[in-house]
What does this fold into?
Amino acid sequence: GGKEIDFVAEKPEHMMYVQVAESITGVETRERELVPLQNIPDNYEKIVLSMDKSYVTSYAGIKAENIIDFLLE
It folds into this structure.
């Protein structure tokens, strides 16, 4: 276990993979959330949502965003 994607959002011609965690400030948690996304071989959008308010907005092309900001977009 531990290699699943939390959510996959699909529309015609577009897909988004989403991981959700309370926080990804810890290295172990961040790796746990990023590795499944990094293992997806396509180029659709990949994002990790958390309660973190951070200046880091991307990890090797995977977006990191505050979940509240994301939901209010």
